[in-house]
Amino acid sequence: MPRFAYKARDKAGQSVESAIDAPTRKDALRLLGSRGLSVATVEESAAGPVKRATHNKRAAPAAEAPSGLPTQLRADTRPRKADRLPFLESLHDLTTSGLSAGEAVRLLSIRIRAPRQRVLCEGLWARLSEGVPLSRSMAAYPEVFDSSTINLVHAGEATGSLNDTLARLIEHLNEQREMRSAILTAMAYPILLILVSGAVVLFFLFFLLPRLQSLLHSLGNNRLPMSTRILVGFSYFLLHYGAFVAIAAVLAVILLWRWRATDAGRQKSDGWLLKVPLIGPFIVSKTVLEFSQTLGVLLQNGITAADALRMTERQIDNRVHRAAFDGAIERVLEGETLSSALTRTGCFPELVLDRLSVGENTGNVVPSLRDIAKGYQKMISKQLNLFTQVFAGVILGGVFLFVGFIAFAIVMAVFQVSNGLKVG
Q: Which residues have a Cβ under 8 Å from the Cβ of 332 and sit 6 or more positions away?
């Protein structure tokens, strides 16, 4: 019977190197998984001595695709980033029940019914069955798992605390999802107001006003009040040239969007957004939240400070802040404290830097980052509510003024008609 040398970690997180007899590599992996071992490598070889090894927390390299896997998938079954959180939650549920990560993925590949998640689990299991660690298997799906997720899983494998790492990662991803949902919810109301208000205005201009125009023209445009002539002229312009204006506006939006998609355009437009009232402070708060959440989770799960800072940089959405944070990282790597380096960027509020400095001085950086994240989650919720109220007030005020002007113009025209009839 073939003999397989393996490297693995037991439930206590200790590294073990030994050998096992099994008919095939897959059988060897199943036997090791039943013993509660987290397998790193399995190779057919002679027996080797059992020895301890040191931890290795470096980032996991990308996995090579095993033979026999399809290289192309249909669009409706190709895994997406949205499949990351459901997969991690299912994996965590099974590992919490006592299964190893490999057995959990194998069971998911059999039981799960969602097409994209099933394809993802099958691909991961195909790699795991060949002895590839979970983190390297996940690296084969960059469209689903980003580098932060992969490195967190790798750190959990290296320290034997994969289940705890998955729990903290799931909590972090849920917090991000809730924040995105809050932003979308806050924007839904103003957008609805714009659509309804636009429909009301168009109803006045294109339905009610044309019914009055025959009466208004019978008086002669030179006898109409100025407000009514402005209204009639605006309606005429929209009827005859509104389509061209709409097309021009759409083209302008497309060109602006494509310009913003370039590096120079994104950098420039992100700088402009920071100067806009309400939007600028919200972006600063969002950057602080992204920084504190991501860095706190990475450091808590054993990622080295240098790797954690680089991965945190990629999570910052605003390019101006990202560039400033990149410069701060270089100063940190040269020996400067993080709070001092961030002070030079001018992007972070002083209170945040003070709290971070206290955490560095007391050796409690991760708790400080978590406290900052919780505080800014509440602050962003308040800013979203304020933005929604102000934006909705501006939209409603503008619509009321416009509708009031329409009503005023029509009433003035009616009075003009009444006076003309009395004189006649």
A: 305, 309, 338, 341
